[in-house]
Amino acid sequence: MIKLIGDTLPNIPWQEKPTDAVGPLWRYSNNPIIGRNGNKRSNSVFNSAVVPYKDGFAGVFRCDSRSISMDIFAGFSKDGLNWKIEDEPINLVGIEDEILNREYRYDPRVHYMDGKYYVTWCNGYHGPTIGVAHTTDFKTFTQMENAFLPFNRNGVMFPRKIGGMYMMMSRPSDNGHTPFGDIFVSQSPDLTFWGKHRFMMSTIKTDESAWQSTKIGPGPIPIETSEGWLMIYHGVITTCNGFVYRMGSALLDIDEPWKVLYRSKDYILAPHELYECVGDVPNVVFPCAALTDSATGRIAVYYGCADTVTGVAFTTVEELVNYTKEYS
Asked: pLDDT grade, residue 101 (50/70/90)?
C-alpha cells in the first residue's frame, strides 16, 4: 500500500471520482472556485498556493489588477473552496530596502516548515528571480534574500531538510516568455546562500511525450510518500496557436531528489474545460499547490486556469503514483 507521509487533514476539500472520469485527476464539479473578481481590483486570480491554517486554510494568491500589474495577496477560507482574498497586496518587511524594491510578484508557493510558513514567488529584481519570505500569521511577511540571480522562475522548496540541507527546485529562464526550460535542484544550509546545483530533468523533444517538449517547471510543494517524493509539474508544447500547458507527475528519490525514478509520459490533466481553454492566456492548466491527508491518501490540487481563474482537482496517492509508474 502506498502511503502519504505527513499530517492528517480531515477537512481536506474532496469529491469522489465520477464513474466517467478519464485519467488520474478529476475536476471539482463547481470549478472555477475563484473567478476573475477575487478582490476589488482583480482582473484575474490564478497560479496561487494554499495551506492548512488554524481550523481552516490560508493562501497567497496571484491577483493581476485591472491595470494588469502582478502582485500577491493573502487569503483565508474555512473549507478550502470559498475564499476571501485581501484587497491590498502583501506588505513585505525586511532588513534591507534593496530587497524590498518591488517590480512585480507572481506565481507563489507556500509551505509550513520550522514553525513558519514559507513563501516563494517569481520576484522582479532586474528581471525575474525567486523571492523568499516567511510568516506565522499571514499578516506580517518577512522577506529574505532573493534565492538566485535573474533569470529564474518556478522556485519550489521541499517541505523539509534533506541530508541536513534545504532544497529548492527552479527553472532557469530568460526575461521574456521563455520558450525553453529544464528543472534544477539547489541546496542551502541557511535559506540565504544557494549552491550545489543539480540537474533534475529536461523537456522531451520527441513524440514519445510531446506535450512537454518546449519547457517544464515544478508545480506544488513536493509530496512525501512511501515511494519517494511525488512531484506534480507543468509541461508546455508550442503549437500553431501558441503555448499549451498541461500537468505531469514524477517520483523522485527521497534522499537525492534530483534523481528521477519515474516520470509520466502521458499528461495527468490538460486544458479541456471552457474555463481552462478561454481566458487571458488560453489553454493553460498550471498547478501551484496540493493539500494532502495522510489518513485517507487524498490529494487536492489547486491550479490556474487560462491565466484567469482558479480550479481544484482531486486524486489519491495510490492512483497518481501507480499512474506515474505505469506510464513512465
From this structure: confident
